[in-house]
Specification:
Blueprint lengths: L12 E3 L5 E3 L7 E6 L6 H12 L1 H6 L2 E7 L3 H10 L6 E3 L4 H5 L3 E6 L2 E6 L2 E5 L5 E5 L7 H8 L1
Parallel strand pairs: 3-4, 4-5
Antiparallel strand pairs: 1-2, 3-8, 6-7, 8-9
Length: about 150
């Protein structure tokens, strides 16, 4: 079941790239840009992460925090974050539990093969913990500008 704008953002508690816990509830009072992506260091995911990095100051100036989520390990996230100088946390959802809560863990098709995976998606969560806007599936080109406009 997909999360929709106007609903309460599902609560989560995930480790970041340094294995430090990140809890959505601790971010109350701030806007949260929660983006789900398929895999560290792949072409589309790198472009998306770097777009968020390049616009990070503009996002923070609007009172928001950015959190990236994928099933990659903390080590993979650390390497990706360091290599691309990403200034925001990357959260580890190894079992796809949070992906399932947000409805982004779906059947995908690629090169004639079907498999379960993360559908690139972004959720804008308002300071009260409500989902203000949903982009799913996300088209990487121009996406961060759409997020900035919504902030």
């Amino acid at each position: 079941m997909a999360v929709e704008a106007g609903s309460i953002a599902p609560s989560f508690h995930l480790p970041d790239q340094d294995e430090a816990p990140v809890e959505l509830a601790s971010l109350r009072g701030k806007q949260v840009v929660l983006y789900f992506y398929p895999k560290d260091a792949t072409p589309g995911c790198t472009v998306e992460a770097c777009d968020f990095r390049d616009n990070f100051r503009r996002i923070v100036a609007k009172g928001a925090v950015v959190l990236g989520v994928s099933r990659d390990s903390a080590k993979s996230h650390r390497t990706f974050r360091e290599k691309k100088s990403l200034p925001f946390p990357l959260l580890v959802d190894a079992d796809a539990d949070v992906c399932k809560l947000y409805g982004v863990w779906q059947l995908k098709k690629f090169m004639g093969r079907e498999f379960m995976g993360i559908v690139r998606s972004t959720f804008l969560i308002d300071p009260e913990g409500m989902v203000a806007k949903v982009w799913s599936p996300v088209s990487v080109k121009g996406h961060v500008e759409e997020v900035l406009a919504a902030l």
